[in-house]
């Protein structure tokens, strides 16, 4: 598969950066074509602002981001750095987001990549969303390194279950924009990992990647699949498990 | 109360920017002292990187962000822009984060503010966290404008319940760093709001702010309050409502 890895860590010698090398070498040795967007190395501009719309937005006039984003995207007037990333996204069949979990989310520099690259008309093209949209047909996966221990992210852990912590990325960004989302690969206690711990995680990661084409995606419910009352986006009664609340309701049950 | 408003919107004429003016004028007319950090206007540097540690980190050497952050904070060698924001945080009794909900979280520029200003030793000072830490004794509140409709954020809404969507900010950032968190003020369908809709929200917001000193905080469970098994951070059995899962478990029940 044509694979784009969006990578956000300021030091390639980190645990996370070392895992990136494993990811690239495993994918390439399995015959996949790989491109890497290294956000820190590229000095990626993190915030979306009026400089993103140099031709279509009159400097100093009202800036409604979604409107300007749509205008600049559809008229091919986005900035070159954004256009290059969008070309990579269009090329990719699999998109891997690899990052350290900072404050329980992606680093600001990667959040800014999503804000700038997932333009209106491409990353969101309402009313298409949640299983439909500009990135339909692509697969996505997170590779995440967490500083904390695994128990903190377990079902009763104080940080919240890891699947819930990553839900706003997996479901509300990646599935939202049409992608099929594979289960995330997460490592814990990363800052203090020994070489042995790293090698164990690396082996597990290589094994996951070997099977990347057949891994079952997370079974999120498509907005247009009949499970929701439209308009309103309300899940119909009786589809969830008894007592189930919150994010879990939006995953189909077998 | 001494109030710091951290504001992230690229246009002060937006719905969000107009709400900011309401917030400031109401707080000041009630006798509160107000400072505003306007991230876009300040050209805030969004990403944390080695330039954050100009004295204590040798350029090009290994960069472990938490370690460098602790080192630079404790030796008073952070950059001036960060030091100024930390001084405002130390001064404040109430911190309001006001932003548009982009991709179901705060804008990248504000995420970067948290990454850079909540230094190790201040914003997180392990093992103190969740109800203890550098910002103990301060109150925090979100003022959020959402583009989508309210039903999408209801208990069965496809975006997830708004309290869950904001949980990673309220609980895992603000409560984590020691602050007491007030319920968020959220407006919906903001991009297409009429003047009448704005005025209704503005009146509701002013009324909330008038009562700011007596609003009941969200009853998050303190990590050191006896509800968790330490180490491990696991919620003890039987404290949650029957069938309750996920983020909700970490809120005390009456």
From TrEMBL, chains A, B:
Any one Gene Ontology molecular-function term assigned to this protein's record: NAD(P)H dehydrogenase (quinone) activity
One GO cellular component, as annotated: cytosol
Matching Gene3D superfamilies: 3.40.50.360
Annotated Pfam families: Flavodoxin_2
Residues in coiled coil: none
Keywords, alphabetical: Oxidoreductase
Domain Flavodoxin-like fold per the UniProt entry, residue ranges: 1-207
PANTHER family cross-referenced by the UniProt entry: NAD P H OXIDOREDUCTASE-RELATED, NAD(P)H DEHYDROGENASE [QUINONE] 1 ISOFORM 1
UniProt record similarity statement: Belongs to the NAD(P)H dehydrogenase (quinone) family.
Protein name: Flavodoxin-like fold domain-containing protein
